[in-house]
Amino acid sequence: MKRFFSFCFIAFFASILVYSQTFNLGNDDWTKSGGSFGFENNNSQANTFETPETEDDWGDADEDWGETENENKTTNLNVTDFALNSYGDQNIHASLAGNYALYPYNLSWGGNISLGYNFFIDSLFSIGGNINFNYHRTRGSNVFYNVPMMAKGSINLAVGRYEIPISLSAGVALQSYLTRFYFGPIAKPEIGFFYRTNSEWSIGVTLGAYLMPQYYIGHPENNRFGTTVEAGLSIRYHF
Q1: Model pTM greater than 0.85?
Q2: How far apart are CA 207 and CA 164, in angstroms?
């Protein structure tokens, strides 16, 4: 019996040793397997995968975008870089001028303030309008007022930065002298000389004449044809 128990004990001990060795082999296999899945074996991972250089790639992309933005930035163009006037161009102007009456003789020196607008239908022709406020002193120290409201057509000659508009305006004018009022037609031929300082502004001088007929039905003795000339300074904003 003692021999039997001794044999069983030895067999049991031997079985434990064999099983222990088998378990260790299994662990080694799992260790190797774990390295394949990324849990261990860092050397194997380093040899298998390469880290993408995302920062350098994005840096290059930023530089490319930066170059594109610089190329697309709007620059301030000089007036010599494009035609001064083309279809759709517009301008508004303000003028200050001095007037002198050629007829009737009882009128003398005066002044004029005007505001106007022009729209270009092509590079040569423009249409628009203006409103003026004129006054003249009389020989008897009184004042003659007239407020013309006119439509305007112009031919615009341009050479480099210089422009020469030749225009004709026509419309009606409200006229006042002492207690008398008159509402009648008026016309104005005009020529100007302007210098375009940049793409938005120009300054110049103008020379024109006002033609103001007054007709009284039934009283022809009161009919008059007023003629005044003016010279002034003007500033224009182009858009």
Answers
A1: no
A2: 11
Give the C-alpha distances (Å, rounded to integers) separating 10 from 2, 3, 4, 7.
12, 10, 10, 5
- Read off the tokens for 120: 């270009």
Structural domain boundaries in the chain: 2-72, 85-238
Instruction: Kindly report the average pLDDT of the chain as a whole number.
Output: 78
* Whole-number Å distance between alpha carbons of 78 and 64: 28
Q: How far apart are CA 116 and CA 131, in angstroms?
A: 6
Return the closest-CA partner of residue 208 out of 143, 158, 160, 150: 150
Q: Check whether 115 has a pLDDT greater than 60.
A: yes
Q: Which residues contact 191 (CB under 8 A, 6 or more apart)?
A: 164, 165, 166, 167, 206, 207, 208
Q: What angle do CA 160, 166, 171 make, to 5 degrees?
A: 145
For domain 85-238, the CATH class is mainly beta
Cα distance between residue 170 and residue 174, in whole Å: 13
